[in-house]
Amino acid sequence: MGTPAPAEPISPRSPRVAAARRLARRNFRTKERRFLAEGPQAVREAVAHRGATGATLIELFATVEAAERYAEIVTAAREAGARVHYASDEVLAEVSQTVTPQGLVGVCHFLDSPFEDILAARPKLVAVLAHVRDPGNAGTVLRCADAAGADAVVLTDASVDLYNPKSVRASVGSLFHLPVAVGVPVEQAVEGLRAAGVRILAADGAGEDDLDAELDAGTMGGPSAWVFGNEAWGLPEETRALADAVVRVPIHGKAESLNLATAAAVCLYASARAQRAPGGCRSVTPS
Question: What is the pTM of this model?
Answer without folding.
Answer: 0.89
